[in-house]
Amino acid sequence: MKQSFLIILMAYCFSVMGCSKATETVVPPSTGNGINTPVAKRRPASIGIVGDSANVVRSTSGGMVLMGGGNDVDAAFKWMMERNGGGDVVVLRATGTDAYNRYINGLGSVNSVETLLINTRELANNDTVAYMIRNAEMVFIAGGDQSDYMKYWKGTKTEQALNFLLNDKKAPVGGTSAGCAVLGGFYYSGETGGLTSAQALANPYHANVTLYNNDFLKAPYLQNVITDQHYLTRDREGRSLVFLGRINKDFSVQAKCIAVDERTAVCIDQNGKAQVFGDYSATRAYSYAYFIVPDATKQPERFEANQSVNWNNGGKAFSVYEIAASVDGGGSFNVATFKVNEASGGKWYAWWIDNGVLNKKDQ
Which of 100, 119, 226, 233 could bond 186 through an S-S bridge, CB–CB 3.0 to 4.6 Å? Predict the structure, then answer.
């Protein structure tokens, strides 16, 4: 009898253990309320959550935030939070910590802020991860390395969930630095290494000019746009012009560029109207964003491998609108049209390139 009882007991234990290891696919977030909720096994990729882990449903208004890196812009996060209806915020990254959780939670009233560290394609294809993204009322893509996002997320359920938020649910989505880079329909991957303006202007076919055409995120109004970040701080004006030239040559598209300096954010509402937000600094009162439009009627005079770029067109190769950031939102630019007469609060410049040297003048 004792032996039979032991056999039955062991069978029961193995059965329970087997059940406890069963893989859950689509699992709604666990219920509960509290700060710094422990990360449960049923929340894959989560490295921390602040607030209520129970999903809520809130009405949202669409919009995108293109942040240039460096210090985060409080005003831009508040702009997004006004559009998320007090719902759930998800931060996405492939490296780093959950430091955004308390920062965002401290800026306004939301149900929760959770960081998902998605650093494998397995996690990016996980149904529960996709569920948490799709059910967010706001998503922010952190900085890092955009080639990681391309490598891990492109062609996965994470990509599908982000595009659902952008185009169907119309929830606010933003990104800083690398997170900003992947929001453009055209994007620079950086997968083979960094690229300076000097390198790009000296050789527009430098090995590190790695560009992709609308094969990842589908943000409204940005399908014919490439973004650049850390713009003035890292002297990236020249390389963004080369990106536009390569897109023209390689993909036969006259793309535009939205370039954002550090401590600066371009906030684009559901109608395509953009304003530029930035936090005041006593040592650097203004930072800038640039809306760059190449002359669609003229080609570069010289744009070949291993030769410096000539793109002059009488000193009018590019029309560039500069807007200074402000806490309340500087200027206005219609990203839906990029029309000259629909911009206000900034200043138009003409840019051109002579023998690999960038030149500028007032327009």
Answer: 226
Structure tokens at 239: 């390389």
Residue 349 bridge partners (DSSP): 320, 362
End-to-end CA distance of the chain: give it in Å, rounded: 97
Matching residue, tokens 């998503």: 139
Please state, as a whole number, how many other Cβ atoms lie within 10 Å of the Cβ of residue 254.
Answer: 14
Residue with token string 């000259």:
340
Strands (E), the chain: 33-37, 46-52, 63-67, 88-93, 112-117, 138-141, 172-176, 186-188, 211-213, 225-228, 256-260, 264-269, 273-278, 288-294, 318-324, 330-334, 347-354, 357-362
* Residue 180: Cβ-neighbour burial (10 angstroms; 0-12, 13-18, 19+): buried
Q: What is the pTM of this model?
A: 0.88
- Looking only at the bridges linking them, the beta strands covering 357-362 and 347-354 are antiparallel
Q: Is 35 helix (H, G, I), strand (E, B) or coil?
A: strand
* Segments of 72-144 assigned E as strands: 88-93, 112-117, 138-141
